[in-house]
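Exercise 3.2. Students should predict the tertiary structure of the chain below and write it as structure tokens, then compare their answer with the key that follows.

Predict this chain's 3D structure.
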Amino acid sequence: MTVKKLITRLAFVTSAGLALALSNAAIAQPLPKVPTTKIIAVGTITPGSTQEAISAALPQEVRETVQLSLDGKIEQWNVRNDKQGVVFVLNMTNVEEARAIFAKMPLDRAGLITFEFIPVGPLSPLSLLLTPPPHQ
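Answer key:
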């Protein structure tokens, strides 16, 4: 069996197991709380921002972003394909701390970008796979 087929089969088995666990779970049973392990920061260029204003702030913005990456705060940085903006995966767990750091960045200070900060954690429904289904 090729590695690709093995990965595909494993993904299918995991998905099927999760679906089975969810179907056997009581509807009213709340999912367990999970810790925030990362923050997704979605930045969108503010409407009305000019290319000239963005270009003027960009060199310092890039330097400060690189420093945040070297400091271990930014794990991944990506450009949006649907509109002008960026998406960062942050090695942070406190949204207010992330918001404060990004508020000091040149594009944010100039009002040229806005960020949405989304705290994320482990996929909590996976814990249902650890509990055997009740015997019927």
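Discussion points: The chain has four helices and four strands. Residues 38-120 form a domain with the Alpha-Beta Plaits fold (CATH 3.30.70.1060).
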